[in-house]
Amino acid sequence: MAFLFLSPIRGIPYIYGAVSYRREDNGMPTRKSVCLGKIDLKTRLPIFNDKYLPWLKDHNLTTEEAFKDYISKTNNKYNINLDYLNKKENLEINEKNFSIDELRKSPSKCFGTLYLFNYIIKKICLYIILYSIFPDLYEQIITLVYFYIIEADPAMYCRFFALKYDTYIDADKVSSQRISELLSKISYYQKIEFYERWGNLIKEKEYLALDSTSISTYSNNMPEAKFGHNKQGDNLKQVNLCLLFGEESGLPVFSTTYDGSLNDVRTLINVLKRSSLIQNLNYKLVLDRGYYSKKNLLFMIESKFKHKFIISIPATTNLKYELIDKNINIIDNINYYINYNDELLYGTTQRIKWENHYLYAHIFNDYNKIHNYRPQIINDINSLYSLALEDPESFLKLEEYKNYIIIKKNNKYNIYKVLKNQDAYSKALLREGWFVFLSNSIKDTQDALKIYRKRDVIEKAFDICKNHTEQARLRVHNSLKMENKIFIGFLSLIITSQIHKVMFEKFLYRKYTMKELFAELDLIQVTRIKKYSILTPLSKNQINIYSAFDCPLPQEDL
Length: 558
What we know:
It contains 22 helices and 19 strands. By secondary structure, it is of the alpha+beta class. Strands 6, 7, 8, 9, 10, 11, 12, 13, 16 and 17 form a ten-stranded mixed β-sheet that branches. Strands 1-2-3-4 form a four-stranded antiparallel β-sheet. The protein is elongated. About 1% of the residues have low confidence.
């Protein structure tokens, strides 16, 4: 005879199915029991596991029949609702309960961070582009991208990442050997197609910041890797990485590499030709003073691409000081005051003729820098004055200091008179805090300042690229793998840049670093059994993070 009974364990009533029979050896009555679920003490409703329905079927019982005998003996101690038990939809829900053995065989994995990543790549249409261009590789590529963002370790550890995180991919597909094969399979034409489609998708309406950085490599087999001006300060060969970054979208648009021994001035034309041909865009560029040269400016003005630009002028150019001297009167003139982020700035714009072309020169002065610089230059001049007093004859030979110290010799008495040069001091002070931009398109002074100041997004991008995506060192040994690893890094940068933009706009940096935000979401675990998933409950902090990204809260059966 089959029946159900409840047995409390630590105050929780567990449901057991039992079959009575007599032992063959002595004829004594006994029963064989199996746990089929438990009673929820809050709702007073039963929660069955996956053994419940098969057990009823094997013994030709309904739920009501199975409970009838138990309820008659206990006077329905737990107020079990028989109507509820026989609802079909309830029985279907109850199929999602699992045995302890199944739970033991299905380890929990980190879920929350990758859930956010998956939402982001679909929202910005990165997923559909990767899926269509790399139909056989996109799962490996996305997993490696996620690995670089979260772990920032060498690719050989990606397999362990796939075992720890809910990646939807077999861990063996991202082993060290498979990753090495992946970096050899991504073709040049696939990357060209990606940049073309991605660039056309972004369609940046405002300006693109352009800058470069060096990436060191341990390899001696790549012709592009050479010794040069290493921005990381290590004694390794390097390749140079150039990025185009959208100021409004906050996303990288294009990347390319070039010879590690070349400086920024010599690479601009090549980078613009390459990127413009691929993406067929007439860029509007924001450039720092490292790209300033006559050749570069003429190319942007006269080439068929007709790039619009704004560029900072280096302090070493005569043009900058000519413009400063002509506009020295804007300091402390209320008519030239600019209110920008609570800074005390003065600025003006002039249309000038440069190499038979008309450009707009935007001249600015940061008045606070004059006051900050004043103690420094006074101390420097006083130090020079003390040295001159000690040995004025030797000091006369130091040409570079003659601007600040005046030494007069009385030949009759063979004595020296040492003076501080007030005019030189005043001139040096007045020339401090100035910065000048040239543009072939921006006419308004405040617009020029706003557009140029936004280029700091690319500085943050390089920091993310090197510190969050394991791109500071290249651990590959041929050019193809090097290019493809940098391409994977570019994809990682797209996602991290989108995360950075939201964290900045929604003030999440007040509470988390990017790594701390990932750690918070990693606490959300998932256990997958058969076709079902079991998620840990979400905390208030996790809900707030998803809300900041406008990301729907994760649900079971994802």
